[in-house]
């Protein structure tokens, strides 16, 4: 299941680094996924899991059909639900980043109107204004991917996709020179710090033009370390993370089987104030840490020649045949989860998703992964099943 929401937007940022270490990689296969339990969210609509609380006692969902957030306990029973569709002071506006649990009783999310923290009943606890005024936004949604929370020196911080424009756009070199992927947000002091540039040797500094979805960040942070990959770039950057920012520590070069080459777009085709988001290009989409292991969720992308064939079919007006071909091509895309040891950063596995599981993503908490059951193509179901999945050694 895929959801794509668009609005006009352009982003851009800046920072520095210092002499990182580099690691190569091999891909053994010593692990597998085991479904150990499940819970059912019984609701009509189009819900997607966005996060699980640190203790795995609360689950957050977003229902696209009703533009509503739903909170359940670990049995699937609804604890609360709320919506902010109206134009009120506590409304976030256009949703830009799914909510994440700040703690067991609060959620943070990002909208066009700012960064918001709500209690589980939907009462606004705090609103932080964006560091720059916004002209628009782009948003691709994947299960289990939302705003990140990290504790530094006993204080809670948010890690959010940066939305600053700096009066530039992806058709200009200075956009790439000044790019920053994330905001490190001090909740208490309402302070935003831009972090994570395109580092030296980055694919996105080759002079080509790239869309926001090409370099969308996938990240996880814990124990004063930030692990991040930028979209189609096959490398993991590991930073030392503090309340002052980041310092690049290690680069892990990746070579993911079935990962397609990212198309390059001439910069002359970009215009200021507009954005194109593509859901069919290769990307590392999310990173989770479970029991001392980094789980890197990747989407291999549709081959460029196949996309051209699909576009030609669509333009010809044969929508039925183009949809049929798209489903066939999408089923052939390599999607999986690369597993790294958190301490050594050695690659210790590359796994496919379990059968009959939604491959758009998953959440993690309590030492487990939480994956959605794939929808039944033949019968419309009135529930969403979430599998509790454990990574086990063979």
UniProtKB/TrEMBL annotation:
Cross-referenced SUPFAM superfamilies: YWTD domain
Superkingdom: Bacteria
Protein name, UniProt field: 6-bladed beta-propeller protein
Organism classification: Bacteria, Pseudomonadati, Bacteroidota, Cytophagia, Cytophagales
């Amino acid at each position: 299941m895929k959801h794509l929401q668009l609005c006009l937007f352009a982003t851009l940022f800046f920072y520095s680094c210092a002499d990182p270490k580099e690691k190569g990689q091999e891909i053994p296969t010593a692990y597998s996924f085991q479904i150990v339990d499940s819970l059912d969210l019984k609701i009509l609509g189009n819900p997607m899991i966005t996060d699980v609380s640190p203790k795995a006692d609360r689950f957050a969902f977003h229902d696209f059909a009703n533009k509503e957030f739903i909170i359940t306990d670990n049995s699937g029973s609804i604890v609360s639900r709320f919506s902010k569709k109206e134009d009120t002071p506590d409304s976030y506006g256009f949703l830009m980043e799914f909510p994440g649990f700040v703690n067991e009783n609060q959620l943070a999310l990002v909208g066009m109107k700012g960064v918001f923290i709500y209690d589980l009943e939907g009462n606004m606890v705090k609103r932080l204004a964006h560091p720059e005024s916004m002209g628009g936004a782009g948003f691709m949604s994947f299960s289990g991917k939302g705003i990140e929370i990290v504790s530094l020196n006993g204080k809670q911080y948010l890690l959010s996709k940066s939305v600053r424009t700096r009066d530039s756009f992806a058709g200009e070199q200075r956009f790439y020179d000044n790019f920053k992927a994330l905001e490190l947000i001090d909740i208490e002091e309402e302070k935003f710090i831009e972090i994570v540039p395109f580092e030296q040797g980055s694919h996105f500094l080759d002079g080509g033009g790239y869309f926001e979805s090409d370099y969308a960040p996938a990240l996880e942070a814990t124990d004063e370390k930030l692990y991040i990959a930028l979209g189609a770039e096959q490398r993991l950057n590991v930073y030392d993370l503090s309340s002052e920012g980041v310092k690049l520590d290690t680069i892990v070069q990746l070579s993911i089987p079935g990962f397609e080459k990212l198309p390059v777009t001439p910069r002359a085709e970009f215009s200021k104030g507009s954005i194109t988001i593509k859901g069919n290009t290769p990307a590392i989409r999310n990173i989770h840490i479970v029991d001392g292991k980094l789980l890197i969720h990747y989407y291999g992308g549709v081959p460029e020649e196949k996309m051209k064939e699909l576009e030609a079919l669509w333009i010809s007006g044969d929508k039925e045949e183009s949809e049929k071909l798209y489903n066939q091509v999408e089923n052939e895309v390599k999607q999986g989860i690369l597993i790294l040891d958190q301490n050594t950063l050695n690659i210790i596995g590359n796994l496919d998703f379990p059968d009959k599981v939604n491959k758009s993503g998953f959440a993690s908490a309590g030492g487990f992964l939480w994956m959605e059951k794939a929808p039944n193509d033949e019968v419309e179901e009135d529930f969403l099943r979430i599998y509790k999945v454990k990574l086990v050694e063979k």
